[in-house]
Amino acid sequence: MSCTGFLYGRSDSYRVATTQDKDEKESPKKKGGKDLDDLKKEVPLGLTNAKAAEYLARDGPNALRPPTPHHPGMDQILPTALWRLLHPAVDRSYPLLSGLRHPGCHGGRACRRQCENSHVHTRISSQLHIKRKLYLGIVLSAVVIITGCFSYFQEAKSSKIMESFKNMVPQQALVIREGEKLQINAEEVVGGDLVEVKGGDRIPADLRVISAHGCKVDNSSLTGESEPQTRSPDCTHDNPLETRNIAFFSTNCVEGTARGIVVCTGDRTVMGRIATLTSGLETGKTPIAKEIEHFIQIITGVAVFLGVSFFILSIALGYSWLEAVIFLIGIIVANVPEGLLATVTVCLTLTAKRMARKNCLVKNLEAVETLGSTSTICSDKTGTLTQNRMTVAHMWFDNQIHEADTTEDQSGASFDKSSGTWLSLARVAALCNRAVFKAGQDVLPIQKRDVAGDASESALLKCIELSCGSVKAMREKFKKVAEIPFNSTNKYQLSVHEMDDSSENHYLLVMKGAPERILDRCSTILQQGKEQPMDEELKEAFQNAYLELGGLGERVLGFCHLLLPNDKYPKGFAFDTDDVNFMTDNLCFVGLMSMIDPPRAAVPDAVGKCRSAGIKVIMVTGDHPITAKAIAKGVGIISEGNETVEDIAARLNIPVSQVNPRDAKACVIHGSDLKDLSQDQMDDVLRNHTEIVFARTSPQQKLIIVEGCQRQKADIGVAMGISGSDVSKQAADMILLDDNFASIVTGVEEGRLIFDNLKKSIAYTLTSNIPEITPFLFFILVNIPLPLGTITILCIDLGTDMVPAISLAYEAAESDIMKRQPRNPARDKLVNERLISIAYGQIGMIQALGGFFSYFVILAENGFLPSVLVGIRLNWDDRSNNDLEDSYGQQWTYEQRKIVEFTCHTAFFVSIVVVQWADVIICKTRRNSVFQQGMKNKILIFGLFEETALAAFLSYCPGMDVALRMYPLKPSWWFCAFPYSFLIFVYDEIRKLILRRNPGGWVERETYY
Amino acid sequence: MFTLTMWVMLQTLDDYTPKYRDRVADPGLVIRPKEMEITFNRSIPQQYNTYVQHLESFLKQYNESAQDKNEQCPEGVYFEQDGVQEKKVCRFKRSLLRQCSGLADSMFGYSEGQPCILVKMNRVIGLRPRGDPHIICGAKRELPLQMQYFPSEGRLDKSYFPYYGKKAQPEYVQPVVAVKLLLAEEDYNSELVIECKVEGSDLRNNDDRDKFLGRVTFRVKVFK
Questions:
Q1: Of the CATH numbers 3.40.1110.10, 3.40.50.300, 3.20.20.70, 3.30.2290.10, which one belongs to the domain with range A391-596?
Q2: Cβ–Cβ of B24/A979 closer than 8 Å?
Q3: Which range of residues forms the domain containing residue B200?
Q4: What is this model's ipTM?
Q5: In CATH, what number does A172-280 get?
Q6: Which of A914, A864, A872, A921 is CA-nearest to residue A888?
Q7: What is the rounded CA–CA span in Å between residue A683 and residue A320?
Q8: What is the pTM (predicted TM-score) of this model?
Q9: Which of residues 144-203 of B touch A (CB under 8 A)?
Q10: Do B30 and A882 touch (CB under 8 A)?
Q11: Each residue of A788-829: pLDDT tens digit?
């Protein structure tokens, strides 16, 4: 199983499940083991159709029930589904609040107006206002719906990709019922069915094997073991996962045939239970959801504080209770940044897309950031860290170790192929080998071709094909006349081949097998193509080479051959393989070849990145500890110079028990030891060792490890490789499309980047809240005409601020984000007080001043000097007052001064756009200067132009005065806010300069967000 | 920073005229008493006293004593003082309003059920209405309503234009037109919608949105 879990503690629910599980798992075995002979007698006819139907009705179809995902499926009633999907990233209360803003604010204002007005036209104009309110309501609903659709489609797209993973063709199974062989849908297989499988089939359910012929299964999706395992009717182990007579659901039969009785179906299978367990892990909120919740708390806190203080103030100022309550609601809802929901969703979507391009498919938008906050990655070895194919890595001949090329693209070094010994070795490896390339793959590069045969033979086949040309031709030249296949008693494989006529000898005997067994049978050894007697020195050289290769975690095979003497074995000699009638000792040793599943090229680099990023990488594998350790060292999971307890013991020549475990940073833990570890010991191991390898682990143990990791930290996410089962993929938040560990690192990088960029984006969006709210406050406090209206606020939040805020998601990282420690969820928040203080307290205030300045400029230039404005509100908003005098003695009708007021709103809006230019530029960086960061973000530059163009459009487009009550500005009014824009830029550059000069100083502590 | 920019901005402003006057290109019309619905019973003085007091206080600035120091300007031409340093103000005596001046009839006709309504045009700096601006009122109904205008024909004399602003002409008074509604017996006890417009000049009186630009609408209901 190429499962990569990156996990931190949570959840306790499945602990019980894990323990229960073991007892249940025993049951199939016991049942199967009751009496094999009885069974054999009983079953040849299989179940009756009636029985099968009965069982099917009782147990349900033989399929894994998809785990209930934390977002509802498409089959739910659309509205509910829509609502839940609408806000995957944002707390439910948030859009509710933003929806509230409008009824509250407008209802309030309309109410006030109606109180004030006694004019004949009130009726008509309030109708007009109702229309406008309706219009706003529609706009807002549209925003919420569009945002919702956005995330909905993103998720729908991911689920579509998910669908495509599933096999379109339903799985078939061959069952025997009422004595007849039937090809049925695998879903219809029931417990007790007699099933036949052959090489290439997928096992349709958990089977108790009752007869087998050379049957081998690939359990890698279950145990991670890449080596096919033999299945036979014998019960060889108490553990159902280890015993040979059980074949597991959803694993593959590689070769041979077998018959078995179905013992478990569907979710009750081992795979099903593991899938359920895996999905049990995935609960709780993702880190980003928590962050957003925290953010909403802060925003609400600020809003409520402002609202309540102004409520008290307005009461003190003599407003009526009703008005004060209206103000309270108005202020609270005015604090909601409407655009933020959309911005966050879009930012996350963009990152999800970017990650998908880099082979990281994110199913749940919230999970985008999860990888970024990862502190521990538990990775399976096979397929993720390694290429999941055996490859010849080393050879030993002519008393020398040669390195073979193991890279994925054959770019590695080659070795000397001219030696006669190599030719002989290649011949033995090619001939004493039953693996063949599957037909019709001539166009494919050799490495990519499919091979029928076991992993090590395929490795040899490919190696020889690569270095010596066609193995097929060689096999045709030396026809096979006899063969003894590998078995566990003699531990070798042997074949006899006919030599061509040019040769002196008629027959060539070739043999491969366990090196020590091969050596025992040899009396001579080939050196530089010449046969030499085996002496002690050479034997020792062999031993050293064998140990060295074994120490690398490689599987070593020995090769030998013998040209059978013509006198004893004349042409036509009948070789009998059952009762061996030819010599099988005193052979000539040729060499050793060793194989390994080599690490993927990008993995060591990725592991190195993880390490510098402060992420602990734990390898979990079903492989042998030595192999596991070798691969771990190869990819850097155990880094150079770090020793395990055993290494220290070996170096100091003392028993393992005397070594202080604290001295060893690395450790390799065997699955059988893991069983005996208590929870505390487990925690101890995880805490005190930086480099951990778990070898020989079963799937259950993998979960225990994950659980251990969880206890240390807070959150959990599940990432799956593409080769994982459908069910586990459904449970996962994230899928690595290329099964490559390096993709996780990409995910981490992107996740960290989006976390930083979301901060910037939020800082940017929040800043404009202050110039949006202060006009209302001053309207209440000093009774000036309203400087900024609701429509213009919406134009900012949903119009001009959007693209620049989103463009910050494209911002490049400021420094090497893979060189810092993972985010501490308790300390490093998405939105903290410092961000609020910068956005609201500092930049926002300057922006508000800029806006007010243009407001005063316009009113003053039209005749209303600031001195007359204070306290003018009641008269200003009085419809019946149509001769309001300005500072110059001119008299204004209501409509005339309202046009000026709306021009002010437009100018205030334009000013916010202008100061937001500076804001987006300063938000690009949190520490660096813009001059260091550069202006390479094209989307951001586009955003600057876009918001300016939009502002100009809103101001100058004919008809806007009617539609949005926005009026054309005189060109000079655009420049009012320029000094403030410049001030913001300079202010923040200076702040960042001090921050960089004085690391850890007051400025950093108080303002670095 | 804010203070600085505000100061700079205020320095650029002219003391006499605002920088932009395009938003008040056309003047609005308003009536006195400043009510949109004038309702009273002619035989109950308490009901119209507020209107009368309002008119009286409004007309104070047009008193002989106040207007005596102002210039008697030639009629029918603009009173141009562009180059003049100390700007004078044209005289508008309240006696011009005759029956509606409140001098002869201190009740402005309210007690006899034929109320006077004063119509004035908003002050706008530099406004020079072309043609012969005069106020015309009409009831919004089939039958025409008899009315009397003071000064005659409801004329707004050109000599009161242009206005040079509060600082240059602190004593400026704008011309007023009084409309005496000559209600007939059948007009009592019913609501009359009356619209007054400025006609005979280039001043706008038909803006879609601004119902007070060059016109004003009000309701009158007098009980017997």
A1: 3.40.1110.10
A2: no
A3: 26-222
A4: 0.95
A5: 2.70.150.10
A6: A864
A7: 63
A8: 0.75
A9: 163, 165-167, 169, 172
A10: yes
A11: 988 888 888 888 998 999 999 899 988 888 888 888 877 888
